[in-house]
Amino acid sequence: MEKPVLDLPLITSSEVGENGLGETKGRRRKEALEEAKKQLWLAGPLIASSLLQKALQLISVMFVGHLDELSLSGASMATSFAGVSGFSLLILILKEK
How many C-beta atoms lie closer than 10 Å to residue 78's C-beta? Predict the structure, then answer.
């Protein structure tokens, strides 16, 4: 009977390398870089959409900033309020459909 995956050790005795702590440094570094590349490839669209959403809010506030201080403070407050409450509620409503 096989052990569940979560009960297996991360480094098995056959992988013990030259330093006694696991695989050799070069092999571990290569595997870590490959894993980082995979994670960045998967996270890339999330990062891009987050940056574009923040850029949209920033550009809106910058345009209002050319008017006067009262308009700038109002736009900043509205953007913050919409980000905290409005967009979250909108996402919840869209997920229910």
Answer: 14
